């Protein structure tokens, strides 16, 4: 495993396992157990994924020492605000069956996330969370949060894949000392990504799969990746990315796939903001 060092000195695995859209508890526990068996040591869940208990069950049964896994969960919009964040943190911890978190993220830049951030700063100072961060914060939101608070987010988890490479956001994150973490490394399977000709050519050149090329590209770009799969063979495939290197020609070909925007979500769409505010997770 390769690691990145966050702005507070905490080490984070560069490749992890995500569990979005795995609401079935048995399926989630099975997938996380498989991932841990394969060697993943970063698990990315969220209160809104409704599967923190299943993640916790897999962690407990794995027998892996607590300090050897890096567990991330996220605060949902409904729980934004100082008091809400303190309560939601404890609820997530209880569901996961843990007594501290490695990384706690503000899931969306909506609601009273300043109040939430203050609560998270305190929890971090108390040692109950090793690192705090945000998700889906576009450059202006991120700068504003940094300029008005004590703790700089350790991580910003944003959509990141060959079709949306966050070319403007990544240099800013580097300047601020915020580690980029990519969600949806496979663009959630959209736009025929696994059959994309450019990616398939690079994959064939290295005797690897398109999924492995995409994840290798994340590793070489120092973007933490958290691919999701519920299939054992894909969970294995997605972890097997440390034995080859993309060259300048491969990287240039992948760079040319960037569309510069998301085709999955639109944080500027009022209907999307309304939907996220209305989604209740408890
Ligand atoms: P993703 O990882 O880009 O794509 C997952 C899709 O790709 C699934 O349909 C999966 O199918 C398929 N897949 C996985 N590996 C494959 C392979 N080797 N070959 C072919 N197909 C493969 O999408 P994601 O789950 O949305 O993103 C990853 C993680 O990021 C999430 O699980 C979550 O932890 C996080 N996330 C965060 C946010 C946020 O707002 N912060 C938003 C979205 C996601 P099967 O499962 O059927 O194998």
Kindly describe this structure.
There is one protein chain. The protein is of the alpha/beta class and 282 residues long. It has eleven helices and ten strands. The strands form two sheets. It has an eight-stranded parallel beta sheet. Helix 6 links the parallel strand 8 (155-159) and strand 9 (179-183). It is globular and about 55 Å long. The two termini are 36 Å apart. The protein binds NADP nicotinamide-adenine-dinucleotide phosphate. NADP nicotinamide-adenine-dinucleotide phosphate (NAP) binds at residues 18-21, 44, 107, 135-136, 157, 183-189, 194, 211, 226-231, 234, 237-238.
Features:
alpha/beta; eight-stranded parallel beta sheet; 282 residues; binds NADP nicotinamide-adenine-dinucleotide phosphate; 11 helices
Q: What ligand species are in this complex? A: NADP nicotinamide-adenine-dinucleotide phosphate
- Lateral arrangement of strands in the main beta sheet: 3-4-5-6-7-8-9-10
Biggest beta sheet summary: 8 strands, parallel
Spell out the helices and strands N to C: EEEHEHEHEHEHEHEHHEHHH
Coarse structural class: alpha/beta
The separation of the N and C termini measures 36 Å
Radius of gyration: 18 Å
Helix content: 40-55%
Mean pLDDT: 98
- Shape summary: globular
Number of helices: 11
Question: Strand tally, please?
Answer: 10
Contiguous uncertain segments of 5+ residues = none
Beta-strand content bin: 5-15%
